[in-house]
Amino acid sequence: MIVQDKRLNKILCDQYHSIIPTQEDGLIVFNIFNKIQKGILDAAFSERAIINAIQTVQLELGTASNRELTQKNDETIHRLLKHFMERSNEGRGYQLTTYGEVFCRMLQDEAIAHINPTDLERIFSDLVLLLKSKLDNLSDFNHWYEFQFTKNKGEISGQVRALKFQIDETIETLNDIVKSDPDNFKMMLQECDNLLSYIREQAVRLGTAFASKDDIKQMLDECNLSDEPEFRNRKKLVRDFFKDVEGKLIGISHSIDRIRPRINKLYSDFDKREFDRKLETFLMFLFKNSTSKFIKTKRLTNRTVNEIKVTFPKPLPSMKKAKVKFDKSVYYNYSKFTQVEYLNLLDPPPMEIYDMTFDAADLERQKNNKLLQLSRERRIEHWFGEINTQLKEGKEVEFGDYFYKILDQEKDLEIAIKEATLMLREYAFNPKYTLNIDEKFIVHKKHPHTAIWKMQIQQNIVS
Amino acid sequence: MENANTTKYSFLESPDSVDTFSDMDNALKNGQHIQNYPHEADLFHFLEKFEEEIRYYYKNLFKVNLMCKGTDYDRYYYLDMDEESRGILKSKSKKLTPEYTLMGILLLKIHRIDKYFGSSEIPVVEFIKAIKQNDEFKDDVYRLFARRKEKESTEIDENTIDEWIKNSLREFERLGWIHFDRTVGNKETFEILPSIDRLFTMYSYEIHNIDRLVEEANNDFADEDFEENEEEN
User: Fold this and answer.
1) Contact A331 B145 (CB under 8 A)
2) Range of the structural domain that residue A38 is part of
3) Which of A5, A214, A238, A370 lies deepest, with the highest CB count within 10 Å?
4) B98-202: which CATH topology?
5) Averaged in consecutive runs of 10 residues, what is the pLDDT profile of chain A (463 residues)?
């Protein structure tokens, strides 16, 4: 055994770099494998196809050269021929070795792991079924372990890895959304949300499929081979593997639980941003469509302000339908207590007597003014009577003449002006009289600073 | 019957009611919103303790609903009319004037969306400055309240805008939407309380449908312009 290990180590030391390809070599093999899978190339392919693959990969990696380096290509082909390619059986061209194919398939599965709970259910079902018939002796169990369990371990781990991979992808997308704040923020968030729901669903299904592990554990516990150290050792490996997978599934479940609140918060942030935008638009709408009116200027302590009344726009048709107005009210039913003072009617307070002193001179002045005013009113009435008599006799009265006559006789301009006012008030709108005013001034030589428009009054003849 | 009523309004018999009920009742009927803040904590706890009974009391005797909105520490109470009582109690309501509404929404925008003030204590002087200097809406503020451009505004115009802001803040304090704290340094400051969210509730229809309303308004204006042109032709 030790000799074997030494030999293996030596082989690996010598050939490691040809068994494990460089990035460029690996991608060239994968490029050809992919083309064969898609039917672009036959299983047997030409050297030209290999050179094409080399050029494509070099272009992708940015290592392409303008010149076709024949020698370099030959070296690459020569290297790949050690483990990944071989001469075609038909003797023409090349084909991938089995190792090359397995390598590419593993690469594919590792890079793009697909979640497939149905496969996992089938694998576990097979494992349980086969184990039942392989527990009679150690040799059968070892066969189950090496050819059933070990072979499917990779598939089981791959499923869990695929879930973990998808969760990491979701987290990365969420981080991108937060950092870059894209226009289609809500759509991307929705996609993440859907993906997370899908992952959770798959995790539950994987968990259910994985429940068959308990059957395997139970069968191993109840098996009669417990005395065999090799059995116990392998049983432990099986249990450890299941424990490891179970731990990873729990971890995935926790990751989903951790992401969910983040998605909810992003939703809430989005809704908040949307609400804020709408609130700002509403504010601007009110500002732009409201009008204001100046009411009055008010003097307050140390300052003067204008009283302004703002009016909101009229409700729009859809608001009318929804019975909504821009003006809102709050409940207000506030009343103050009114305190009424007690009136002591039975015991009235004593009457106060004040000492009165009069200003005799002022009283005299007030009396004279009043007498003058009464005298004026009498004189105005006298002149009105005289003019009225003239009119009733059918005569036309030229008030301008009367104006100066009054002024001459009364020597009081106020009487003359008030008479003129009385004339206008009495005759201007009286249907029985016609009052004609000509805006030509009548002047009098005795009164050079006084003038009055020509004003004729006459009684209308009733037919 | 008497016993039944005693049970319904038993909060009136509680020892707390002597000190608290009258203040709580006055505050609620004055349109005030009550929340768990130090200056009104007694009223809030009384309301919280007898919530159902007090709700019944106002519904049964005043035909008005005791509302409780917000969650956890942001809960607040107020009286509101429903569709049915709105008609009956028309005289028992007070209009929130357009001037106050504009200021309320502006306050929410500056504080909550723009996060203009770092702390919760907002100095009144700074707040006035923020409104007058904000490029986004100062033109509209001057157009409405000074009725001229900022550059042409007089001292009276500036005083008028200051007065609008201060009056609005006083009204919001009466409603319990903000609280003045005059103890911070020499500056008069105020704090926005959770119940200012009532403004969102009041305008929820308009805010949620604003895109449609703007479109509708634009079409309306376009129709009016068209009609005017038709008349001119």
Assistant:
1) no
2) 13-111
3) A238
4) Arc Repressor Mutant, subunit A (1.10.10)
5) 76 84 92 91 91 90 71 87 86 88 84 69 84 85 88 81 80 75 72 78 78 85 85 89 86 80 79 87 93 91 91 88 85 74 67 83 93 94 93 90 92 92 90 89 88 91 69
